Amino acid sequence: MTAFAELLFRHRLAAGLPQKELASRSGLSERALRDLERGARTPRWHSARAVAAALALDGDDLRAFLATARTATPAPAATVDATPTPGDLVGRDGELRALVDLATGTRYRLVTVTGPAGVGKSRIVAELGHVLARRTDLEVRTLDLSSVREPELVGELVAAALDSGVSRLPPVDRAAAHLRDRRVVLLLDRFEQLVAAAPDLTAFLRRCPGLTLVVASQRPLQVRDERVVPLGPLAPDAAAALFTRRAAAVSPHLTLDAGGTAEAVAAICRRVEHLPLAIELAAARVRLLHPVELAERLDQQLQVLTGGMRDLPVRHRSLRAAIEASIEVVAEDARTLYTWLGAFACGVRLDDVEAVAGALGRDRDWLLTALTELVDINLVRAIPAGDGTEEFATRYKLPDAMAELAGERLGAAPDGERVARAVALRYLARLREGSDGTGRPLGDRDAANVRAAIGWAVRHQVDLLDGAATTAIYRYYETTGRLVEGEELLGRVAAAGPAVAWVRAGQLAALRGDLHAAARLGTRVLHAPGGDDHTARATAHMLLAQAVTEQGDAFGGRIHLRAALIDARRAGDILLVGRVLNNLSAVSVERGRLRDAERQLRAALEAKRRGRAGPVELGRTWFNLAEVSYEQGHADKAERWAGEAVPLLLAGGFPRLAALAESTRALALLHTAGPARALPVAEHAAQLLGTEGDDRRIEAVLDLRRSVIQHAAGELAVARDTLARALPVGLDHTSRDRDEVAQALVTHAWYLVRRDPTAAAALLGAGQGLRRRPFPEPTVAMTARTAAAARAALGAGGFAREHARGTGLDRDGLVALCDRVAIPPA
Description:
Blueprint: H1 3-15, H2 19-26, H3 30-38, H4 45-55, H5 59-68, H6 93-104, E1 110-114, H7 121-132, E2 139-144, H8 154-161, H9 171-179, E3 184-189, H10 198-207, E4 211-216, E5 226-230, H11 236-250, H12 261-271, H13 276-284, H14 291-295, H15 301-304, H16 319-328, H17 332-341, E6 348-349, H18 350-359, H19 364-376, E7 381-384, E8 394-397, H20 400-412, H21 416-436, H22 447-460, H23 467-480, H24 483-496, H25 500-512, H26 515-526, H27 534-550, H28 554-570, H29 574-590, H30 594-610, H31 615-632, H32 635-651, H33 655-672, H34 675-689, H35 696-712, H36 716-731, H37 735-752, H38 757-770, H39 777-807, H40 811-817
Parallel strand pairs: 1-4, 1-5, 2-3, 3-4
Antiparallel strand pairs: 6-8, 7-8
Organism: Phytohabitans houttuyneae
Protein name: XRE family transcriptional regulator
GO molecular function: DNA binding
């Protein structure tokens, strides 16, 4: 007789009920009740509940009765080798071996396997049970807690799983008396909804010295002596192997090595973040879709990743069900925060989500409690930021599928629009603070949040996007180098709101090198109705001045900047006056008036200080002073002023311009201290630039300058590769970029002339042919010495011939000529 059958028999007799009467009261057939009482049938949960209600059981009697209704099935023993084998468990060999060691060792007796929904916790614990069952030195028991929601039942269920029998003794005492010193491993699945009962598990471990518990739970139990084993997504190769195996099972004729298929499988696995359940559900779709088609349809994973095997638990039949099962077991506050996080388009820092929660009436304690629960149960990932501006910050991110479900819940929530508005207002405020230097600048990691905030304002409250906001938007996209995206968004803002947004879009177009688009957008503002917005007009004139100056019309640029200066003064904006003076210096440089440029920059610096400019504005002018000083041949001043600019630009969240200033410092060091000092600074400039954004112009300038310093340092092959990578970009953009190419070519000629005077003469000709304005003072002397050395080696006729050849080279010819840079000394 089973424990349940024995209790049923006792309680029925105590109630004085015949089998027929009890069957009638509980809604069971008389035969079914008779089989249960004989132990010939395993009770179902709803049947046990119905019988308990009919018997009017409560308190300890009810808990013991229901606990014995859950059968714990011992794994079969065997006498084969216990070495783990992969079997049907793909990509988890290492984790399985580690679990075997932990379960069979004596150091840890409570092992908790954690991880997000669908990562395979139940699967690996089941496989562990099969492996351990092959041993003869221990017993294995399993206990599935999927349908249990009452923590107070855990003690009785564990005792029943350990075959401890039924008595009036507490469950722990019964288990201790039954097991004594026997070596037993109990595997418990789906414990995340029962963590309140974790102390009960530790009580069993204290009383049963031979017992080890291995628990599968989405969150740790947080008790002493617990060893947590986090289970993460599969490695890319293992993920592809799992997809291939599952796809072959449902579509045996599918050829996964056909053209493009392997890449599509890899893309699918990346898109679902290498989560085993998602991979298996995706593979099941190859009955209908080729992997290439499937890879294109995973933007909405919750709709696609369904249709799991019918003999699996409901939570394993779709990705949505797996995530919803996780949400069900957290507290109401955590569910609310999970829904709110659907308003963030990407990860979020704690201070940002705190600000949003505060705007929605929730305090820090509420937020930290809810966020901790979401992180513990793996619905939210805590990710170290790892970039220069957020070195010590942690970001909190919903994985893609969980973010998709949170977005759905937010759309259906009564306060969904209020939450979306609070998030948008937070990031619009952050844009302003980062632009004027009063707050922490936003980095590239928040690009999706910024984009969503701007989109929300365009759709719902365009008056938020005034002139200051559009300036802040422009600054953000300038500093992050996301020029194409910023130009498109500012165009949307301009179509719905202030005309000055057209100027800001044009400024980003100019940074991309599209001067025609920049001029068109600037002119649009000048011709707009009204004309009393002097700030917008001044900014438009500045944009037009940049466009015409870079196309070789310095006189036209000067006219526009004089008009801009008048409008800036009419606007009463001293900071804007400083910006105009800063841009006037660029026109003076184009006209070869370097002393005028320096005076204008010093005046711009003073105006910006009076206007309480932020670090980016000040850093930009210090950088321009460094560039002008270098052009004048004052390398020591250039190094000092570039050194002033770099920390200011970094503090203002503009690492791209900081990288350019650092490269100017490296060039100055090359003249004052030599290549050994200059090279580390040039490499640091490349590190500051990073890899984000689509602004390839700054990257090309840095590479051109770095290639010169690498050449000077004797790193010839590296210098060649760096130069060849930068040349096409520099030649395809504005005349200012071509001037940088020319500067690099003539400098390479100087370092090459003693090894290869023929190539040096051609490089010199190419550089002098490209340059629109005079070379910097140090370069003038260098080119004269290069020409003299090449002429001495080749003769006047030979030098003239190679020089002329270099002048006539097209882009491909110049790139080919770069190979000569790598020729080693004889």
